[in-house]
């Protein structure tokens, strides 16, 4: 079974998450919006009145994400399907361009802000040079997608049927399990302990291999 995962929005909680991932040799993609990333670490919003969310500063992104895949989440995180087509196209194009300039690497993956998209947005993402685009719609047979611009994940990391979905994905011909989330959704100590246990259990699956998302399409 190949395991792929991605995390959105470039928040300080990613540092703690990455510590867990590194302990287990887990690969992951991080989907960023560089135009709204502050120059230095800054408070951004309050998550469900449970915790303060802080955005990472641009000055620390290279160090924080060293060794992980960077993917485009648009330049400014708009609801792309609500924008005029040319504006959406520019936000998508610029999102990829500035990430490549900042990190000095190819950026070929995309995640739709808010999970929303339509035909025009999908074509804009494809035209900007991305090889896949992630939605938020869970499916049992994630790979290969019928259209790489609608690459549906297996589930969110906090799905109540997470382990059942792992088994269903494992039984598919491609054997790809794909999960996603935001690290700021991990609020309590128990949440973090459960996340660490989840990554450890995935790493221990017989025959399980952590895989970079772009490598699926190579």
Taking pLDDT < 50 over at least 5 consecutive residues as the criterion, the unreliable ranges are none
Distance between the termini: 17 Å
The portion of residues forming beta strands comes to: 15-25%
Counted beta strands = 10
Shape: globular
Structural class: alpha/beta
What's the helical proportion of residues? Answer: 25-40%
Major sheet details: 6 strands, parallel
Number of continuous helical runs: 6
Q: Please compute the radius of gyration using only Cα atoms.
A: 16 Å
Q: H/E order of the elements? A: EHEEEHEHEHEEHEHE
- Taking all residues together, what is the mean pLDDT? 97
Structural notes for this entry:
The chain is α/β, with parallel strands linked by helices. It has six helices and ten strands; from the N terminus they run E-H-E-E-E-H-E-H-E-H-E-E-H-E-H-E. The strands form three sheets. Strands 1, 2, 5, 8, 9 and 10 form a six-stranded parallel beta sheet that branches. The chain has a two-stranded antiparallel sheet with strand order 3-4. Strand 8, helix 5 and strand 9 form a beta-alpha-beta unit. The radius of gyration is 16 Å and the shape is globular. The mean pLDDT is 97.
Write a compact overview of the structure shown.
The protein has 218 residues and is of the alpha/beta class. Helices cover 31% and strands 19% of the residues. The strands form three sheets. Strands 1, 2, 5, 8, 9 and 10 form a six-stranded parallel β-sheet that branches.
């Amino acid at each position: 079974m190949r395991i792929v995962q991605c995390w959105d929005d470039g928040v300080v909680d990613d540092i703690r998450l990455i510590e867990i991932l590194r302990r287990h040799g887990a690969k992951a993609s991080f989907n960023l919006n560089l135009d709204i990333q502050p120059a230095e670490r800054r408070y951004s919003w309050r998550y469900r009145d449970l915790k303060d969310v802080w955005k990472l500063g641009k000055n620390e992104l290279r160090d924080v994400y060293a060794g992980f895949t960077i993917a485009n989440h648009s330049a400014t995180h708009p609801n792309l399907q609500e924008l005029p087509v040319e504006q959406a196209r520019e936000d998508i194009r610029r999102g990829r361009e500035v990430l490549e300039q900042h990190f000095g690497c190819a950026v070929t993956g995309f995640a739709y802000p808010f999970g929303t998209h339509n035909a025009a947005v999908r074509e804009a993402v494809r035209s900007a040079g991305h090889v896949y685009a992630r939605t938020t719609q869970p499916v049992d047979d994630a790979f290969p997608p019928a259209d790489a611009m609608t690459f549906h994940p297996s589930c969110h990391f906090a799905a109540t049927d997470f382990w059942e979905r792992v088994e269903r994905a494992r039984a598919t011909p491609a054997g790809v399990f794909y999960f996603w989330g935001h690290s700021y959704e991990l609020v309590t100590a128990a949440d973090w302990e459960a996340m660490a246990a989840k990554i450890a259990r995935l790493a221990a699956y017989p025959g399980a291999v952590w895989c970079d998302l772009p490598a699926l399409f190579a």
